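Q: What does the predicted 3D structure of Cytochrome P450 look like?
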Amino acid sequence: MSPNEPAMRLPLPTDGPLEAPAEWQELRRKCPVASVELPSGDKAAYLTRYDDIKALLSDPRFARPTDRDEGAARIAPEGAGGPVANGDSSIAIATQGEEHLRWRRHVGKYLTAKRVTALRPGMVAIVESLVDDLVEQGQPGDLKATVGFPLPVYVICDLLGAPAEDRDRFSYWSDAFLNVSRYSTEEAQASYGEFARYMSELIAAKRAEPGDDLISNLIKDGAEGGEGLSDELLLSTGMGLLVAGHETTANMIGKMVSMLLADRTRWERLLADPSLVRTAVDEVLRFDANFGFGVRRYLGEDVEVGGELLPGGTTVVCALSAANRDEQVFADAAEMDLTRAPNPHMTFGAGPHACLGQSLARTELQVVLEVLLRRLPTLRLAVPVEELQRVEGLLVGGLRTVPVRW
């Protein structure tokens, strides 16, 4: 990565809403450490190879950039952006060292595969009801708005013990939290203030009258003589889980269905053999090229990546979706193989910051797919694939609508 080479601008263009940028393959082959320009105008190093990204994400020395990191690149342009894009450290969950490990231990025990499996029957009932709504509203329907958006909100509200009727507010707060250019900084900050007040009141209500939800259980952990989480960490945890548990999964449901219907032989394969749902979900997660900007890491010291020395003070963007297409790791990486196993994709990250909610997300995607295959076997896209429109202005990738017929 030469300081004189022209920087590509993120997000990279694509030939279609579900297509991967053509540059990824060439970058992996010739320029594994590239220079990119973010919407803010800041420069960053851009990684596209699987092994390089996995090694960096697995290194406990490095975490997401915050406003305490001098010179760290910001994603949002001046006058825009939410807390995450601007690296606001005041809302960051403990990011490094023992404090981060302790936080993961506290929260992770309530998001294990076993605990998520216990939530599965409730998820099935919710999806059945949402599909009823989709059918009742008539054709064509928007699968994202009717199924993809409500399900994760209901699930995360149930997990946190928050009223599901507040889901529209959660959606707005979530968008503002992950905003790059959709809202001004003032709008995003006002939204964050509303969100923080709401979550603070919810935590206070759980202290006064605990239930059997994640926030109540985290409060009980502290009350029973354990280390517990501070009020600040409880607040960041509740807000972070609600945003992460809603936005990414809601978008992924729409993308999953679109990818499987874009080539109808994929859908027919699942109809013929529903036992493939589990491997199909992981392959969809690997194959998704509309994931967002990528995961950022701030290098507090010099580090060698891909045979190149990156100096301390560099912000690195890890293109997880590009790594998921690395031919050195995945056979026929440019093809969707619904039977692919093992499938060590990095959609949920890697190392000490790997997504805690991945069992929850996988289960939601599996349940949606199982119910749709059973209830709406004739499901198809209501518009040509090329007419689907990408979400713009957020850190996470998605489709604006997913019009379907059945």
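A (community wiki): The structure tokens above were generated from the sequence. Residues 81 and 180 are 4 Å apart (CA to CA). The chain has one domain: 8-405.
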